[in-house]
Amino acid sequence: MSCERCAASCPAAGGAKAPAARKAAGGVTVALLGQPNSGKSTLFNGLTGARQHVGNWPGKTVERKEGTFERGGTAFRVVDLPGSYGLAANSPEEEVTRDYLASGAADIVLVMADASQLERSLYMLADFVAACPEQPCLLALNLMDVAENQGKRIDAVLIARRLGVPVVPLVASRPEGYGALLDALARTVRERSVVDGARLREGIAAAPDTIQGTAAAKFAWIEGLLDGAVEAPACPHALSRFDRVVTGSRWSKPITIGMILLGFILAFVPAIPIMMLGGAISSLGQVVAGALAQAGAPDVLGSFLAGVVFNSLCFGTMMVGYVFGINLVFGLYEDAGYMARISYVFDHTMARFGLQGKSLMPFLMCLGCTMGGVSGSRVIDSWGQRMLTVMMAWAIPCGSTWGVVPVLAVAFFGVAGAPLVIVGIFAVTILIMWLVGRVFGPRLVAEGERAGMVMELPPYHRPHLGNVARGALLKSRQMFVRAIRVVALFAFAIWALTYTATGSVEGSVLYALGTAIEPVTRFFGMGWQTFTAWLCALVLKESALGVLSGLFTGAATPNAVLVGVMTGGAAAASNIGEVMAQAISAPEALAFIFAFTFNMPCAASVSATWGEVHSTKWTVITALFYICCSLLLGCVVYHVSSLCF
Q1: Environment class of residue 153 by beta-carbon count within 10 Å: exposed (0-12), middle (13-18) or buried (19+)?
Q2: N or C: which end of the chain has fewer CB atoms below 10 A?
Q3: Which ranges carry the FeoB-type G domain (predicted)?
Q4: Backbone phi, then psi, for 575, in 5-degree steps?
Q5: Average pLDDT in the chain
């Protein structure tokens, strides 16, 4: 959409009328506008703290973040608009941003710019001024500490005089310095100051009526705005020796992969104490269940509390522990400026799949934990590319899968045959990822969005641990609130299906259901025992061997195994492979291996996906796709291998 048409629809410019109730009751609505990595989210978290919520824009899959704070008796409602490079509506993020500004819902627009790269980051301001020339606003020059470290001197007073609106130097990661910004915000509310954009409009009118001509006019306006207001040392854009190695040498890809794997390992440091707390919650559930039984309460009550309520809290807490670790470590990477290098190094490779370079990180992390890989996708700016990355990442077998597959592969096919099974799994992984790209790629990522090259690398700077930790805690809290419902639903389903008053699996609903539908599950290559393990793995992948052990040796019910896995008190029989080899055929074992491997990862990964993509529709589509793929694979593998064994 051209600037003129956007301006015509902007209420501030005299276009379409704003909604009658566009102000919060007795308060002020502030929209945060800026390019990706300008510091909007940091400022949003610093202003609103825990008083925020995340959802979707109506009718869109783009993330919507809103929060509130008070200042001088005035309530402020803050809307963090999606990070975008302009208002041309070339992506869903830009479309949402443009439409929100055109609606007139914001009383004040706070434009964020990266002070270390003003020439580039002020392009959003130029786009905004051209689109909504009468919208009250102010400009925040973030990352002033980085600019100063580069030797730059910025005259904010001169820029403010030329613009006609407040201009505030800022370091968003230091909330103690927010006073000047909040004072400027209050002044903007009182004075309704707007940018003097006469020269910009004259330049656009005189430029050729093309995208290139309009862009040139905007950059010329920015150059005039900054003339004499910014002093910088010579050659500020020269790559350092380190950057030449990590972005342009033959070692760049191995170094990048190594840094991602290192981050994956470091994420366990803060995660382990939280995950241990989750295990303690499950153990507490067993204590509560025992106390209720001694008090004469019905056994079903204690079982429900331990198997559903406490287990759900346990799963959710353990999930949040790892999510916190991932967000903390890779938040530090991003705050330091390294995440852009990851995207740059692998951008060309990932673009072949309709993705960007940052997608590599979730893929590698999924080798350890799918939930971690899903959480790692948060660094991807485009929702469509993030969703496609998550869908592909689900195909990568996680560490829990590799704890099950080799045991069964060696037991049924020996040391010589097991590697062939592993090779087959990797081949199917690539096949499914390709299939996901072909089927869902065009629906999620338009042809014009299939590249995300980082054209200008941000400067390195010292990360702010406290600010990143606060952001990681907020993200983890939001995910826990959403995810607990998904986890509880899965936990309740398994508990209801496997609960028996006697402790014997033969008395469970799952046993009756499994034996009744065994003719159907046999078509997919699984008997009722292996199908039960496949079903329980929907909650927790690592429970599969324990469930198989309980079913084939009569040691415990599936629900008891799930509880035991979380508390560390359950383990598979040491000879489970040999026991199964005597009870089921090699084709059934092979069918189970492939169906188990490519089933949806686990309940925690489903909830993590829901929390990251904010789309129930696409989370369900992804889960159903992998459930169907796993059953289809089991069917094909079983019937083909039956011809060979």
Answers
A1: exposed
A2: C
A3: 27-191
A4: -110, 30
A5: 82
- C-alpha–C-alpha distance, residues 359 and 382, integer Å: 11
53 near 610, Cβ under 8 Å? no
For residue 140, what are the β-bridge partners? 112, 168
The pLDDT score that the predictor gives to residue 278 is 81
pLDDT in tens, 246-276: 777 788 888 888 888 888 888 888 988 988 8
Helices 252-266 & 241-248, crossing angle to 10 degrees?
A: 90
Give the span between the Cα atoms of 488 and 305, in whole angstroms: 11
DSSP annotation string for 404-442? THHHHHHHHHHHHHHHHHHHHHHHHHHHHHHHHHHHHHH
Q: Tokens 């705050």 map to which residue? A: 335
Q: Which secondary-structure segment (H or E) carries 93?
A: helix 92-103
Give CA–CA dist 560/556, Å, rounded.
6
Would you state the structure tokens that stand for residue 443, as one six-digit string? Answer: 């629906």
The answer to whether the CB of 212 falls within 8 A of the CB of 88 is no
pLDDT confidence band for 371 (50 / 70 / 90):
confident
pLDDT, tens digit, 9 for 90 and up, residues 96-145: 888 899 888 999 999 999 998 888 889 999 999 998 889 999 999 998 98
Place of tokens 């889960």: 623
CA distances from 623 to 369, 394, 594, 600 (A): 17, 9, 16, 6
> Do the beta carbons of residue 608 and residue 546 sit within 8 Å?
no
Tens digit of pLDDT for each residue in 537-547?
A: 887 787 777 77
Q: How far apart are CA 626 and CA 391, in angstroms?
A: 9
Under DSSP, is residue 2 helix (H, G, I), strand (E, B) or coil?
A: coil
- Strands (E) in 98-208, as ranges, are 108-114, 137-142, 153-154, 167-169
Location of structure tokens 């049924």 = 412
**Beta carbons of 521 and 591 less than 8 angstroms apart:** no
Look at residue 82 and give its three-state secondary structure.
coil
370 near 602, Cβ under 8 Å?
yes
Instruction: Give the pLDDT score at 608.
Output: 85
List, for residues 177-229, the tens digit of each pLDDT value.
Answer: 899 999 999 999 999 999 998 999 999 999 888 888 888 999 999 999 999 99
490 vs 433, higher pLDDT: 433
Distance of alpha carbon 552 from alpha carbon 389, whole angstroms? 38
Long-range contacts of 252-261 (CB under 8 A, 24+ apart): 252/345, 253/345, 253/346, 256/341, 256/342, 256/345, 256/346, 256/360, 257/360, 257/364, 259/333, 259/338, 259/342, 260/342, 260/360, 260/361, 260/364, 260/365, 261/364
Higher-pLDDT residue of 234, 365: 365
